[in-house]
Amino acid sequence: MRYFSFSGYQLLRYFLVIVCMTACTILLSSCAATSLLPGAEQVQIVTKEPTDCQYLGEVIGEQGGAFTGAFTSNVNLEQGALNDMKNKAFKMGGTIIVLITTRSGQTGSVTPIGGGTLEQTNVLYVGTVYRCR
């Protein structure tokens, strides 16, 4: 007894639908900002060294890339990088991040007549992590 009876063409169509659905799911999920872990929202980002705190190390927060960054809004790239940095600091036991540097990457194309496009594709933040009371 056969439960499924597919012709070669139907099987190919079914396979292509599954591939397209998977690709769309991956693409759409890559456009969202990295979410915060529970508790990581308590981590503060500052620009001045804190006093009476224990140094824990450096942390890098990043969002985007050559492929997914082109489909992600600048706001989501920046928020995702901040959230990534807070998540990593939280896992280290940190409560404060002193922001050291920020970087953003851009990719684009240029046409022979001087036109073209340029878009932000990734954001990277570097900071030092401290545990304060």
What does this structure look like?
There is one protein chain. The protein has 133 residues and is of the alpha+beta class. It has a single domain, classed as Hypothetical protein apc22750. Chain B (Translation Initiation Factor IF3). It is 32% helix and 34% strand. The chain has two helices and four strands; from the N terminus they run αββαββ. A four-stranded mixed β-sheet has the order 1-3-4-2. β3 (96-110) and β4 form a beta hairpin. The longest helix has 23 residues, at 8-30. It is flat, with a radius of gyration of 22 Å.
Supply database-style keywords.
about 130 residues, alpha+beta, Translation Initiation Factor IF3, four-stranded mixed β-sheet, about 35% strand
Produce a short descriptive summary.
The chain is of the alpha+beta class. It is built from two helices and four strands, in the order H-E-E-H-E-E.
Q: What is the element layout, followed by pairings?
A:
Layout lengths: L7 H23 L13 E3 L7 E11 L9 H19 L3 E15 L5 E16 L2
Parallel strand pairs: 1-3
Antiparallel strand pairs: 2-4, 3-4
Derived structural class: alpha+beta
- Mind telling me the CATH class? Alpha Beta
Helix tally equals 2
Shape: flat
Say how many strands there are. 4
Assign the CATH topology.
Answer: Translation Initiation Factor IF3
State the end-to-end CA separation.
Answer: 70 Å
Beta-strand level of the residues, as a percent range?
Answer: 25-35%
CATH A-level architecture: 2-Layer Sandwich
Task: State the major sheet.
Answer: 4 strands, mixed
The strands making up the biggest β-sheet line up spatially as 1-3-4-2
Mean pLDDT: 81
Percent helix: 25-40%
> Which superfamily, in CATH terms, is the homologous superfamily?
Hypothetical protein apc22750. Chain B
From the alpha-carbon coordinates, what is the Rg to the nearest angstrom? 22 Å
- H/E series, N to C? HEEHEE
Work out the count of structural domains.
1
Uncertain spans: none
